[in-house]
């Protein structure tokens, strides 16, 4: 049995948390409520067996039972904010009733110092402040009415003034402390969010082609083996095609590199619009060469998709006066390898088969698709 893990599960009530404030609040709430259960049951025994104060004993027992109920509620509904507020109200109600009956005998009012601390820790600085103000408003009225009566008449106006000033200062210090904690936690959370955004951006940059937005050759080499492995386990077809823009060097020489870049972007966008099923990917693997990975389709469906790519590029109607083809429009040649992955048919096999098919498409006049045999 893992004791450390069991304790963690108990004090966090198996509640997921995404920041330091939430974690601290959950742990504090569980810890304090558990401590209340033990402490107040001890007070029940003391007040019954030793002081014979049955009213306070009943009050202690009620508080202990309400603490148990709060712990149960926290684990059942995992609503930290609700349970925190209930626990705070229980404590405030207990302290008010206790103070009214105790009349500061044996300086019983000293226990009131815990109310602003627990209220703020449980609920945050704003709600904690509201609860503390509510609590001390009632306590100050009771303490003022108790002048000359409490503590067997020894409670004086000076004692009342000290109590008021000390309580206000304590509440103010607790509020400032929690404000500083929350501000620091919020700033830390913002830093972490920015780090995550930067990391995501860096990851995107590392796997995508800066010009076209398609995935790059590095990512192709990284992800394709995983695709083949998954397809092999599921006994799925995988199709790899390599696409080359016909006479792209002549296009650049005629229209300039800027227009060449525009053409590459248009081709990449067209491929992305045609290959949009989950798991299918488009890559720019170099210069004017693109690749695409398609899986979980029949060979007939793959053939239809590849033909739609050829047709889609033609429909762009990008002028290419320097091409050696009669259309004088931008065209592409495509080589395709479609097969079931196996231990023998891995990345090198698929790539070589598709590349050989592309070579045949180019040698047979270009502007066509050739499927590997």
Description of the structure:
This protein is an alpha/beta fold. It has two domains: 3-194, no CATH class; 215-371, Alpha-Beta Plaits. Helix content is 66%, strand content 9%. The chain has twelve helices and six strands. It has helices at 3-12, 20-50, 54-77, 80-102, 114-123, 125-145, 157-207, 217-234, 248-255, 257-274, 299-315, 347-363; strands at residues 215-216, 238-245, 281-286, 289-295, 332-339, 369-371. It is elongated, with a radius of gyration of 37 Å.
How is this structure best summarized?
The protein has helices at 3-12, 20-50, 54-77, 80-102, 114-123, 125-145, 157-207, 217-234, 248-255, 257-274, 299-315, 347-363; strands at residues 215-216, 238-245, 281-286, 289-295, 332-339, 369-371. By secondary structure, it is of the alpha/beta class.
Question: Helix fraction?
Answer: 55-70%
Percentage of residues in DSSP E strands: 5-15%
Largest sheet: 6 strands, mixed
How many DSSP E strands?
6
Shape designation: elongated
Q: Let me know the average pLDDT.
A: 88
How many domain regions?
Answer: 2
Helix-strand category: alpha/beta
Q: Trace the largest sheet across and list its strands.
A: 1-3-4-2-5-6
């Amino acid at each position: 049995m893992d004791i450390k893990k069991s304790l963690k599960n108990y004090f966090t009530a198996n509640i997921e948390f995404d920041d330091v404030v939430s974690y601290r609040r959950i742990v504090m709430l569980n810890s304090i409520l558990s401590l209340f259960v033990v402490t107040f049951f001890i007070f029940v025994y003391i007040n019954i067996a030793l002081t014979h104060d049955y009213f306070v004993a009943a009050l202690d027992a009620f508080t202990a039972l309400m603490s148990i109920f709060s712990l149960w509620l926290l684990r059942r509904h995992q609503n930290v904010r609700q349970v925190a507020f209930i626990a705070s109200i229980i404590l405030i109600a207990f302290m008010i009733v206790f103070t009214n009956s105790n009349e500061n005998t044996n300086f019983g009012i000293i226990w009131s110092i815990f109310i602003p601390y627990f209220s703020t820790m449980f609920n945050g600085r704003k709600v904690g402040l509201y609860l503390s103000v509510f609590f001390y408003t009632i306590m100050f009225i009771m303490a003022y009415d108790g002048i000359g009566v409490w503590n067997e008449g020894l409670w004086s106006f000076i004692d009342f003034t000290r109590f008021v000033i000390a309580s206000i200062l304590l509440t103010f210090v607790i509020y400032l402390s929690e404000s500083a904690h929350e501000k620091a936690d919020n700033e830390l959370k913002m830093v972490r969010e920015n780090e995550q955004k930067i990391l995501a951006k860096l990851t995107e940059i590392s796997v995508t082609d800066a010009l076209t937005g398609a995935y790059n050759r590095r990512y192709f080499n990284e992800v394709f083996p995983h695709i083949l492995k998954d397809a092999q386990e599921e006994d799925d077809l995988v199709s790899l095609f390599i696409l080359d823009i016909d006479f792209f060097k002549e296009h650049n020489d005629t229209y300039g590199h800027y227009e060449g870049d525009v053409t590459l972007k248009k081709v990449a966008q067209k491929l992305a619009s045609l290959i949009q099923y989950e798991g299918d990917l488009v890559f720019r693997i170099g210069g004017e060469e693109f690749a695409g990975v398609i899986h979980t389709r029949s060979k007939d469906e793959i053939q239809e998709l590849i033909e739609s790519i050829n047709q889609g590029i033609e429909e762009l109607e990008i002028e290419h006066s320097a091409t050696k083809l009669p259309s004088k429009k931008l065209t592409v040649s495509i080589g395709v390898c479609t097969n079931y992955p196996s231990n023998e048919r891995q990345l090198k096999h698929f790539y070589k088969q598709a590349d050989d098919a592309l070579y045949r498409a180019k040698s047979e006049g270009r502007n066509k698709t050739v499927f590997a045999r």
